[in-house]
TrEMBL record:
Organism: Desulfallas thermosapovorans DSM 6562
Alphabetical UniProt keywords: Kinase, Pyruvate, Transferase
InterPro entries found in the cross-reference section: ATP_grasp_subdomain_1, PPDK_AMP/ATP-bd
KW Transferase (keyword) present: yes
Stated name of the protein: Pyruvate phosphate dikinase-like enzyme
Pyruvate phosphate dikinase AMP/ATP-binding domain boundaries: 288-670
Top-level taxonomic group: Bacteria
Keyword Transferase applies: yes
Amino acid sequence: MGINNKVSTGLKGFDQAIDMLRLGDNVVWQVDEVSDYRKIVEPYAVQARLDQRKLVYVRFGRHAPLLKESPEIKVYHLDAQKGFEGFATAVHSLVEQEGQETFYVFDCLSDLLEYWYSDLMISNFFKVSCPLLHEFDTLAYFAIKRNVHTYSTIACIRETTQLLLDLYHVKNKFYVHPLKVWKRYSPTMFFPHLIQDQEAVCITASSEAAELFSSINRVGERLDYWDVVFNKARFALTLGLEEQEKAKRLLMKLLIGSESRMFDLCDRYFTLRDILNIATRVVGSGFIGGKSVGMLLARKILEQEGHNRFTPFLEPHDSYYIGSDVYYTYLVQNGCWKLRTKQKTKEGFFKYAPELKQKILNGKFSEPIREEFMRMLEYFGQSPVIVRSSSLLEDNYGNTFAGKYESVFCVNQGTPEERFAAFEQAIRTVYASTMNEDALAYRMNRGLFDKDEQMAILVQRVSGDYHKERFFPHLAGVGNSSNLYVWDKSIDMNAGMLRLVFGLGTRAVERTTGDYAKIVCLDNPLRTPPVSCEDRKKYSQRYVDVLSLKKNTLTSQSWDEIVNDDLKADKNLFASWDYPTANRLRELGYTGNHLAYILDFYKLLKDTEFPDLMRDMLALLSRVYDYPVDIEFTVNFTADNRFKINLLQCRPLRTRGLGTAVQMPELVDERDCFFSTRGNFMGGNVRLPVDYVVYVNAQAYAERNEQSKWAVARQVGLLNTALKGKSVMLVGPGRWGTSTPSLGVPVHFSELCNMSVICEIAFCDAGFTPELSYGTHFFQNLVEAGIFYIAIFDGQEDVVFNPECILKKENMLAAILPQCKQSANVIHVAQTDGLVLFSDIVTQKVICKSNGSKRSITATGVN
């Protein structure tokens, strides 16, 4: 940097006072009025033009322009309403574009308060922009209004800038008082100076200095502008309804976001007092995020529209919300912003994510934020809490981000220091999950890669109770207002469905190892899926997720270990006596009773209000949202079978309808059919042409070691990219997307997101069994991506499966991916000849066969 390359301010006397400016300087003026700032900008701009400098004016404020339009001045108009990230990124881009030794004039930074309502974010902006301008050897003028910002904001600016100067306008005279001048010093530099035309008269006499400063209005410590706005809103409670509504909508913009369908719903149901109550539980400042908004809104809808139908059954919540500004501040204070800016480009989107993720995982929080964290933890005491992602884009219409970001249980055991350290690390983990490959791929595929993803956090008390050294709720699950799991033509899909588990809900939202959740059709809760009696126990839940107080972590335990403990409720609500198993055990000499219970929730569904209540709840939420919804919940019972539901989450769920009925082909010869089955599919009525089939051979896959199975998953991901834009059917053994290679192919969802159809085949000899995972995050991802799903149980009645229809065709794997040719015995890629998938909801029939021609067939019913 040209440290000796001196530059004039345009005021010769003042140049002498501060030993001139230097390339790389950021110059911040504290002023009372923007018009005073203009007086100091004008000579600087004139001098820059005389010196033939490139001059850029960055315009964003609502005040009058600082400079008149001129061909010699390049003006950038930036929209600060887009938020901190968009604004800071735009400034970063223009500085890189304008290059070295550019001169800048910025509008008054205090005007950013009108858009961001946060002093903290102004200091964050300065902290990321000032070093970049310095790095490019620029010269930049900024202004902030005196007595408007907090001491901490001014301290941050003083620490970061090269020059900080007070500009006073007293009795028609202008005075400049240097507060910081980097790497320059003279005996009179830090005295106030009277500016008279080109002269700067140093005021050294104590009497003159005292007269000047005594005439200046100074105030004490200022509240953050965020707190000022909320204090004004509290005062609005004493005013009329019109003033209250105006204040409410302003606060909603600060906490919930810009105008949207969700914003309109919140405006309809929340009062000003509701919003202020939410604000009392916000840590830091900024948005509370989509997950928090969805939970709060759903509870409010049930309270207002339910006419006391639901309120007696709802467990209250006492959640906290860590505002999105805390996330941005964490990135800025830990030196992540420059790397984040590189990562937010198309070229760097995936390239820099791993490095950024590591930096986020190893960062530190500021002391003021840590103090707020500590107060929150003191409130919860030793109750377990869950730290959940709640990004701005999450759980909104069109984008659910289901399962893309982390949620972390804090069992909250140990010393206060240990509990605090675990809580901080949980927040870092959620922040770092913004760089997860699946989350990035989801954003890229949905055209969101350049959108602000402001990560707030929802901190909830875990619902449940202590049972010896375990903590868990009696029930947990997910509910959909539209039941897409239609295995019987008599099922009313509009009655909704539940995916129900005993214990923590992690088993309800994930595809679990060797275990099955209970699927409940709410039009007839006792209707059972098409499973034979002997398979009733096999397709039930056998493991329970709990928080272990001893191990201080989330763990899984066998239902058999838990069933005979004191559940503080009637265990017969959840489990039924399994007579066949009991008889077999008796014959084998076992005397214990616990192994003969099966988790089928029969009495719960038959004898309690629970299923009717859930059906009504889902119907009401769906009606108000004017959209199908998906909820997460827990349920806790008392000894007399009374229960409380804790509504943890609610979001719009994009679903496909049944679609127009299609004419199903006749099977003249089953050998011409790739497969045919009844039920076990999701996607409505379709007539869908298939260009390629990617087939994973079960036997060859089973014979591979675990490392090789993971390699197969990565190769499927490469095919997912290579065949993007084609209609591709992915066929494989067991469960796609499992985390356990022995149960299926462990692909990430981003590695099959471009497929048109995925098919899970049961190969019992090799241990592969599909899981009809309706209600899981995997299911929601399929629905959002418009992927048709089929499970085929080869060998069962009404099932035809002829893999040779595909395997006899040329394997194109090596042609498409030469680097994967060694996997040709496992992965077979066939270009099909008029293969078409047909499905019909009414008959529950699915057929995939050659149509006999290559002509294009329009798919029906896929949205």
